[in-house]
Request: fold
Amino acid sequence: MNSQEKILNCYNTVADDYAAERWGELSKKHLDTLLLKEFAAVNKDKGLCADFGCGPGQTTRFLYDNGLKDIVGIDLSPAMINAARQLSPQIKFETGDLLNIDYSPGYLGSVLAFYAIVHFTIDQVRKCFEEINRVLRAGGDFLLAFHAGDEIMHFAKAHDKEVDIDLYFFKTDDIVALLDETGFNIVEAIERRPHEDAEFKTTRAYIWAVKK
Reply:
């Protein structure tokens, strides 16, 4: 199990390298951009969107550039938030904890979480979904992505720097069931093969859900 300290240490350590590597990744991910463009179009006039686990803000910036201007990028790591602010000074970014979201009930119009749950156990994912449901308005959209499977992968190095972090894979059907249990209806649930030249080689899952 990853402690919050481990997650913070990992991403604070690799923030600049991570930002340099990931900033342009969406240009090679056609399904991701199709989903994000649709998400931006549907939610551009529905209140504040929170991009949780935003890292250096590449998805936040993509949504902003595609018309979703009322948006905030949120990440646990202060170093990642600093990188995001430098890359996109026109967008609001702030630190935050997905297991204890600092917003009042129904405050958000929509939520994006691309790979924001990948360091959580399944029990922590449940808590995360409960928190997102709490702060999302009724009928609000929630789009998430994660690594599909049933393994746990440990990393002792990232970007040639020493870290100590576990990466959790989840079966798509298990996440669908958990979303249903925590108050969401499923709109779409899909998987795709990895892009060999653009990302870590895992099957990717995407779920578009709506708060009941």
Strands lie at 49-52, 71-75, 92-95, 108-114, 136-147, 152-158, 161-168, 184-192, 204-211. DSSP finds six helices and nine strands in the chain.
